Amino acid sequence: MPLTRLDPTAALVLVDLQQGVVGSAHPDVPAVLDTAVALADAFRSRGLPVVLVTVIGGAPGRTDAAAARTAPRHRPEGWADIAPALDGYDDIRIAKRTWGAFHGTGLDEALRSRGVTQVVIGGVATSTGVESTARAAHEHGYHVVLAVDAMLDPDRASHDHSVTTVFPRLGEVTTAHDVIAALTA
């Protein structure tokens, strides 16, 4: 899982690290958030873009999961606010209504206008938001790096499947430590 190289025009994309997601009771959230903050700090210190993606709704199509809910989903006030540990910086903000951060947003344009050729991705959940964003980044022609210790999934088997089966086909699978080391080399 070593990182071969970091492009000079890399960007960090953090998916769904927002109050309503990181406020869950999942025991790995604090460690993942700390790792994401360390990555963001390293990118900012090098003057490289940090993109904070939040989910503010859902795709309109019918699904079995949505049909199984007996009541409409209510999200409390502040649910889509960026986690405080990441907030307060002049980062790129992207709001999305689908799992992936590219569809129906200005993410590709924001990255291309800054000359970005590579994206390092982390966030929640590994098998949905992170994987969908990685797939689209790959399809848009970006070099994709997946910092596996800066992501989690409520379902461990789904996380493991994405990391071991899907991600190696989309980019380089590595750790935040390796990315930070490449940034500071």
UniProtKB/TrEMBL annotation:
Residues 10-177 form the Isochorismatase-like domain. This is Isochorismatase family protein. It holds the Pfam family Isochorismatase. Keywords: Hydrolase. SUPFAM superfamilies: Isochorismatase-like hydrolases. It comes from the Bacteria. Gene3D superfamilies: Isochorismatase-like (3.40.50.850). InterPro entries: Isochorismatase-like_dom, Isochorismatase-like_hydrls, Isochorismatase-like_sf.
